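Ticket #4471: structure export looks truncated?
Reporter: QA, pipeline team
Priority: medium

Steps to reproduce: submit the single chain below to the structure queue and open the exported record.
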Amino acid sequence: YHRFVETILQSTHVADRTVAQELSSLRGNNIGLMSHLAFAMHRQGQAQGREIELDTLRQLLQPDFTDEVGDFVALIHSRGTLVEERDGYYRFIHLAFQEYLVARYLAEDYWRDEGPKATIRFLAAQTPDSWWREVATLLPGYLLKELAPHARRVLYALAGGNDGRTDWSAEVVHWSPDVQLAAAEIAATASLEWFEQDQELRQQLVDRLHYFFTTPDLLNQTAPQLRANAGRALAALGDPRFSADAWYLPNDPMLGFIAIPAGTFTMGEGEEAHQVTLPTFYIARWPVTVAQFRAYVVATGEQPKDSDSLRDPNNHPVHWLTWQEATRYCAWLTATLRAWAATPPEVAEKLKAGWQIMLPSEAEWERAARGTKGRLYPWEGNEIDGNRANYRDTGIGTTSAVGCFPAGATPEGIEDLSGNIWEWTRSRYLGYPYPSDVQGRAKRERFAAEDDELLAMRGGGYLA
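Actual output as written to the record:
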């Protein structure tokens, strides 16, 4: 951006010698004027900050550039520069240049006039607004080029750390949860672009984002889109909720498996409602992630039929798998954990006794989601909203990191049972009632399936 802006403002790109001379004399002020204009426009918000009328342009440039406005407008009409006029409205030739110039203004003018702390506070307050997202990620890059010592200071501050001059941890707790999370995510995203080798900063950001994802009461207070952004950033940094040494299974004593006690529950709705009795089983806290399935691919060499299956961030649920691929993953994980000397004792004992890791049956899935009190949703209450699940009305439009919706967890702590991803079961797709006896379940539940056999899916994805 810097090179492009400098180049396009060079007078050598102007055919008219008179205009070239005028531009040369104005060039020093021109970049400052446009940075000021970009910032003033951006502060008007997404609805009004993209294009403005001439009277508004004049107002935004007063009083600092009152004397230059006339020449600037004349230059726009004679050659265009970075600002163009169409049908009486003035706008930057591309939003990206407006965003770059806003970042420049904050780094140069706002930083000088208001001071570093005020600049950081102003930037942090804007981070939940997607309109300011690119500005916030460009600012550290601009500082790195022009004022390198300040760049790390901004990122440490946004992460709530110690920037070498100020310990921001006492201040950020007074920011709203949205600002805290968005600021940390922006800092993480920017650090991956500008400071990838700074391990101290990286760990600070990992710790900050991990704190949100392990503090449900705090995460629940943030906007779903901000959680989704933060989940992607945490995946890029390395999500400590999962253990690389354990094939990216959850980093807890049960490797993420949660017990569902034996008992009877009501399966189905209305006239189809019936009682089903199940023995004790365990179900994963979260759907299988991209990183977990990639560990299987690396270990076995088996590539998924759909290459898009492994393109999402590591902590997102893996999707586009066939039922057979999902089943083979479960069989591989069973064998792997049986052979692993470090398998947690309770898991190892179960596997040694003949338990297997497999897809849940349709009945097991519904028991985990519905509970014994006949819940309509996995959570308590009969209402759904974007704070509880990643579905169509949430507006994310793609999968999100597992664990983004703790308010949608079951009382046992199982998450993402509704929304985010459709989930395979091992049950054939047949009518009710679902059998409770061992022989009946054996006929209904499959451990191998023909390609043309219909199998039950549950959960509903991000577009459901």
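Status: closed, not a bug. The export was complete when the record was re-opened. Leaving a note from the reviewer for reference: The two ends are 40 Å apart (CA to CA).
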